[in-house]
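Re: beginner question about structure tokens

> Can someone show what the tokenized structure looks like for a real chain? I only ever see the sequence side.

Sure, here's an example I had lying around. Input first:
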Amino acid sequence: MSVLSVILAALVATFIAVTLRGGRPELGALFALAAGCALLLALVAPLVRAVDLLRDVALRAHVDVYYVGVVLRIVGLAYLAQFASQVARDAGEGALAAKVELAGRVGILLVAAPVILDIVEVVLRLLAEARS
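And the corresponding structure tokens:
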């Protein structure tokens, strides 16, 4: 399924969910949740292609695959946290959505920490060399 098809399906699902919420709010919420999950699954193939493309570019540019993996994990965490937050917000749980967003930020920080430490070590080494 192409990304454009996913977007169009999301618009149709939104219309159906809003219509259902008018008469049966619980069905509208369940439909929206199911449609969101189905649309997320439909995006797996395009995401895999994008990840493969990024890995190929990184290999050609002689970038360490470890760093590409860290960036991809960060992007994945951000997408998943945003999706979970939107699901909670759609269910009327704004406070829970905020906690999911915070958890996503903490997860991103934890994944990025080794890279941040590597950068700090390089800067400190450069400063030590400059002093010598």
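Each token stands for a local structural state, so reading them left to right follows the chain. The mean pLDDT is 89.
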